[in-house]
Amino acid sequence: MLKRLSLITLALLIALPGWATELEDEERALERQQEENAPAKPKPPHIKAPNEEVTETGKAPPDSTTSEPRKALFLLGETVEPGTFATLHWTPDQSFASIATPVPILVAHGSKPGPQLCLTAAVHGDELNGIEMVRRLMYELEPEGLAGTVVGVPIVNLDGFRNGSRYLSDRRDLNRYFPGNKNGSAASRVAYSLFHNIIQHCDYLVDLHTGSQKRVNLPQLRADLENPDVVAFAKHFGGITVLHSPGVSGMLRDAAVNDGIIAVTMEAGGPNRLEEKAVSYGVQAIETLLENLDMRKASHFWGAPQPVFYESKWVRAAQGGILLSEVKLNDKVKKGQILGTVTDPISNTGSAIIAPYNGRVLGLAVNQVVHAGFATFRIGEEKSTEEVEAQAEEKAKQSSEKGDDPQSQTEPDNEDKERPSEPAPEDQRPASATPESADKTPRKQASASTPTLTEKEEQTSE
């Protein structure tokens, strides 16, 4: 009898610490949701590889992984052995349990120790280029020669993907609800499930997106260039353009960085289309990343100089009408240059959209009918990598001296930024909430050379 009691006591002592940690993690997630005006400070970066000892700088000692054999990966209740490829399934808490469709998760678990990299695509269901990037990358990996682990989530927002929609079935933008709340709205529950079941197992994260609302983006990384760890990570992608973009609360990238995971967003192309050139750029950049992380040799290494843009603005239409562009993605433009025109199709009056400074076209709206204030062209000001690194180090030093949180200093330029507190979409608003017709105000004729307004607000698409 005594022997039996001692065995039970031993089992409880072994199980209790894990159970207690799980409760603490849930409480931390709820606290982050409740403290909107006091976001949690970022944790130190995750360890470079599983089971490594971590130094005070957040980096592992050089020989810490050579003494232990490679261990199996435990993810989503399944075990993936070293040197193997597996398809797992994640079922977000979103629908009836009896008819829920699991989301496929692709895992390449290398035979050698190394970092764990996660790739997520189609957080917005109409963004197809990232899905194809994940497919190509995952199925060209050979786990027997891979150091570390690559986890690919080709279609995060399965409902949106089926409907060809950016949003979840409840018309919420999933990328405004991370890290989520297991007792919150449908979007918040999906975000919580993805973040806690998959993302928190990552050391690094690349979240794949495209432009939105009939806009296209030059292949680019969005990264917080005031975070030295993120700057160092962004340099591993080869010659892809890098755009400074502090995270916005609710974005997957921002939640990951705040949890100690080094993360960037990759933007390439536009929604509801598959663009071979954009996909190839993205695949080449991530192949270069894998080589620079010493995970595998790249078949196409990208060693070109990396254009870095610390400042950028969307130039907006001064009037409504038909937009016709006169520039292309990646074009260099000069201050005062005409980027495009907007013309009223009835009165034939129009206005030119003018470049506010010298720069490069990083994003643009396709030719279409636009309203006044519509974001039409994104122009970036280029800086050297050395300038960006020096600025990041100086910012980190100043924040350390003042005790500030560097993640919450600035509001990024986000064209599609939506928060739960924003008004419902127009087709869901009551009639009394609809703006009054423009016919009640006198029509103004726009000058043919009126420059558009520029505002540092929003950023397509993330």
Describe this structure in a few short sentences.
The strands form 3 sheets. The chain has a 5-stranded mixed β-barrel. Strands 15-14-12-17 form a 4-stranded antiparallel beta sheet, with no helix packed on it. It has a two-stranded antiparallel sheet with strand order 1-2. The protein contains 8 helices and 19 strands.
Notes on the structure:
This protein is an alpha+beta fold and 462 residues long. It has two domains: 29-55 and 67-91 and 101-306, Aminopeptidase; 311-400 and 438-453, RNA polymerase II/Efflux pump adaptor protein, barrel-sandwich hybrid domain (OB fold (Dihydrolipoamide Acetyltransferase, E2P)). It is 24% helix and 24% strand. It is built from eight helices and 19 strands. It has helices at residues 2-34, 129-140, 158-163, 186-197, 228-234, 252-258, 276-292, 385-402, and strands spanning 73-75, 78-80, 84-90, 103-109, 112-120, 147-153, 204-209, 215-223, 241-244, 262-269, 308-316, 321-325, 332-333, 338-343, 350-354, 359-365, 369-370, 375-383, 454-455. The strands form three sheets. The protein has a five-stranded mixed barrel with strand order 8-9-11-18-16. It has a four-stranded antiparallel beta sheet with strand order 15-14-12-17, with no helix packed on it. The chain has a two-stranded antiparallel ribbon with strand order 1-2. α2 (129-140) crosses α7 (276-292). It is globular and about 70 Å long. Residues 1-38, 48-66 and 405-457 have low confidence and may be disordered. Residues 25-68, 382-462 are annotated as: Disordered. Residues 113-291 form the Succinylglutamate desuccinylase/Aspartoacylase catalytic domain. Pfam families: AstE_AspA_cat. One of its GO terms (molecular function) is metal ion binding. Residues 1-20 form the signal peptide.
